[in-house]
Amino acid sequence: MKFVLLGVFFFLVSLYLSAQDSISHASQLEGRILRLEEAAGKVAALKMSGYMQVQGIYESVDDATYRLGIRRGRIKLDYRESLYRGLVQLDITEKGVGVKDIFFQVSAPFLNTLSFKAGIFDRPFGYEISYSSSRRESPERSVVFATLFPEERDMGASLSLQAPASHPLHLLQLDAGFFAGNGINLDTDNKKDFIAHLRSSKALSSGLHMGVGASVYHGGVYNAREKAYLMQGDRFVEQSVAVGSFSKRSYWGLDAQLSMATSIGRSQLRAEYLRGSQPGTRMSSCSPNYASLDAWGTEVDKGGGEGIFIRPFAGYYIYFIQSLGASPLNLVLKYDVYDPNTSVDAMLIEASTESAAGLLGAADLAVSTLGVGGVWKFSNILSLMCYYEYRSNEQKAQAQGNKFTLRMQCSF
What we know:
Blueprint: H1 2-45, E1 46-60, E2 64-81, E3 84-93, E4 96-107, E5 114-122, H2 143-148, E6 153-162, E7 172-179, E8 193-205, E9 208-222, E10 227-232, E11 235-240, E12 246-262, E13 265-280, H3 293-301, E14 308-323, E15 329-339, H4 346-354, E16 367-377, E17 382-393, E18 402-411
Parallel strand pairs: 10-14
Antiparallel strand pairs: 1-2, 1-18, 2-3, 3-4, 4-5, 5-6, 6-7, 7-8, 8-9, 9-12, 10-11, 12-13, 13-14, 14-15, 15-16, 16-17, 17-18
């Protein structure tokens, strides 16, 4: 009897140990499954996309030039999980590899009404800056934006605020932040620029959609020399400034977009107007985009070491895009104007240029560009753009670069 009981005891112990071993294996298997699910979730949260634009350009002013190249070769990694987002976008062309975007974004856990973004990303000013180059119906942005906001992006931090979808104020969105003011380059000084854009977008009916916005830019440009030039009346007047101080850089802008369904297709109208004060050099009114303060000082010296020139400017663009029914063709008409110095006209600039003591020059001439073209979308992946531009300035309407662009875009 003792041997029987002892056998039963060992049998039960072996069953118990076997059950514990099975439980351990099941627990390990469950852990592996959970880790695999977590990894799969992270992979699903990460999306890769991009596009490549290969183009040929014919440009003629005095001598014709023909160029072939890759305008943009973008690869974007976008990770989104719950309230968090991280994005990296590179631009790869025959010129090399450059960073276009690198930022993280965190949304507030309550109703997603507030989000914070930091890194390198589009400046929140106006409409055209943030309108993707992969969707834009013209080869490049307007002259006024290319001049004031080189590379479109900047290093900074911003907040985005929008009421919940159920709230009457949901149609309003505010984006505002502080930026280095130096494009995609090192932050070279202690002063930060403030940028804000308030916009509203609403579908007025099934075939009619409208959007409007207002923007402000308040910042400064580093004075690398002990003098600066301000417009007083119709001429530049020298003023003493301290090296290390800042000249005022101030813009405001209005933008509007209208889209409607018509009998021949969808019609779109976009317009934007900017005005303000722009510090530049004697040779250019372009915003500074430099890697060091020494580089900016060298840029200032290109005009003869005079210092910064502060100009009152104005600029605008008007787009009209028309689709043709079910056809994959969109027709485009665009007109944009940039006047870097609204205080003078062409006659005064020409008289100043002819004078040995004159400070006005080509950088003060208004430039207008008329563009016409079409975009043929073979599919969601492949499209072809044909676009012709005629650019002239206000001084005897001289041609500044008639240009024809043929561009093929492949998206993935």
